[in-house]
């Protein structure tokens, strides 16, 4: 199973669970898809975009189960990133992990690529 990850505030995921669907964070709405990361990309994403933010979650999804609306597209540094062109159901989550910050305020994911 290939996992892909979404880093997001706990409150945003709680709202999605209450609504029964996750339509994305503000950056996702702006870009027209839900930004996800592979295991080898998620820690850098956390450092670049989530430094200093607490109450974050790392939510994992099975890439294959997301179906044809998951596209791997060139992004940061030309690397292929998973972009989802539909809403997510919270029931699709494989796991939800609260994140802690290191001394520099960077969320620590503990993933190995």
Automatic annotation (TrEMBL):
This is DUF952 domain-containing protein. Residues 93-113 are annotated as: Disordered. Pfam families: DUF952 (PF06108). It comes from Caulobacter hibisci. It comes from the Bacteria. The lineage of its organism: Bacteria, Pseudomonadati, Pseudomonadota, Alphaproteobacteria, Caulobacterales. InterPro entries: DUF952.
């Amino acid at each position: 199973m290939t996992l892909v990850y979404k880093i997001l505030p706990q409150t945003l995921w709680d709202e999605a669970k209450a609504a029964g669907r996750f339509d994305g964070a503000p950056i996702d709405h702006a870009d027209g898809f839900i930004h996800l990361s592979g295991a080898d990309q998620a820690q850098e994403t956390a450092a670049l975009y989530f430094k200093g933010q607490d109450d974050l979650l790392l939510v994992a999804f099975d890439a294959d189960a997301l179906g044809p609306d998951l596209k791997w597209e060139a992004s940061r540094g030309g690397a292929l990133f998973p972009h989802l062109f539909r809403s997510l159901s919270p029931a699709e989550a494989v796991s939800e992990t609260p994140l802690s910050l290191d001394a520099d305020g960077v969320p620590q994911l503990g993933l190995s690529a």
